[in-house]
Amino acid sequence: MKAVALTHYLPVDNPKAFLDVELPKPSVAGRDLLVSVRAISVNPVDTKVRSPKEKIEDSPRVLGWDASGIVEAAGPEVTLFKPGDEVYYAGDITRSGSNAEFQLVDERIVGFKPKSLSFAEAAALPLTTITAYEAFFDRLGIDRDGADAGQSVLIIGAGGGVGSIAIQLAKAAGLVVIATASRPETESWVRELGADHVVNHRQPMVEQVRALGFEHVDHVAIFNDMRHWETAVELIRPQGAIVTIDDTDLPMPMAGMKMKAASLRWEFMFARAMFQTADMIEQHRLLTHVANEIDAGRIRTTLDKVLSPINAENIRAAHALIETGQAKGKIVVQSF
C-alpha cells in the first residue's frame, strides 16, 4: 500500500522530512477495522511528533491522527461496523497512523461519518471534536443537552481546530461563548461559528472580558498555550474550573486557584485508547452523536483548506501551514 512516512525527525523545510513509501497492507484481528483511507487532516500533534530530534526509526513510521474512509474489513470481535461503512476517527497515537492507504483502528474509537459531509469535510473533525467534547462534557462536567444553558465559557485559542468545533459544541449546549482571536480573519471565523463575544488574546484579556460585563466566567478552556494561565486564573469564577490541552513547562502559579477553590482539568484525547480504559467506547458514541448533530444542521465542518493528493509533498506543506500558527479551522489532505 502507499503511505507517507518518516525515518528521521527533520525540520519541515527539509525535502526528506517525509517520504513516499510502499508498506505491507495490514490484516485485521480482534476489534480492529481495516479502513481504506480517503482523507486525512493535520493537527499540531503531528508537527510535535515530527519535530527535529536525534532519534532514527529502523523502519518507516507513519504519522497522522485524523481520517475518514470506508471499512474494508472487520476483525472477528467487531460488533459496531461492517465492510462498506463510511467512518471517521482520530486513531491511537501508539499505533501506525492515518497517512496511509489502509489503517487498522479499534472500532471503539471510530464513529459513523456524517452522511451530509464529504470525506474531506469529515476528516477535518475527529481529533478536535473528541478533544473539545471531552474537555467540556467529561472534564468540566458541562451538560451536553442544555441543563447548564446561560453559563459562560472563555475559549482561548478559539480560531484553531479545537476552538472551532468547541464554539459550536458550547453553543449547542446553550453556553454564552467568549472567544479569543487576534486577526481580522480569525475574528470573522469565530463569529461565523457562533461566538457571542470576541476578545484579542494578544492584548490584556481581563480588561476586555470585564468590559463585556463579565466579572468572572463559569468555565475557561485554554486551547492554545499556557502563556494565558494567569489571565485564566483571574477570570475563572470561585469554584469554577479551567481545562487545558497544553503540556507546558511554563510556570503555573496556583495561589489564585487555591483562593477560589477552583479546579484544573487536563484533556488528552488519546488517553482512552493509550490505556485501553473501560470507557473507550465513549469516543465511538460521541463521534456518532456529533455526526447526527451535523446531519441535523446544528454543527458544521471546520474544514478550511484542502490539498490533494496524499503524498509526502502535501503532508509537508500541511505541516508547514500548521507551524506558522496562523491557520484557522482545519487543513485536510485527500486522495492517494
TrEMBL record:
It is found in: Cytoplasm. GO terms for molecular function: oxidoreductase activity; RNA binding; zinc ion binding. Residues 12-333 form the Enoyl reductase (ER) domain. Keywords: Cytoplasm, Metal-binding, NADP, Oxidoreductase, RNA-binding, Zinc. The keyword Glycosyltransferase does not apply. CDD domains: AL_MDR. The keyword DNA damage does not apply. It comes from the Bacteria. GO terms for cellular component: cytoplasm. Belongs to the zinc-containing alcohol dehydrogenase family. Quinone oxidoreductase subfamily. Homotetramer. This is Zinc-type alcohol dehydrogenase-like protein. It comes from Accumulibacter regalis.
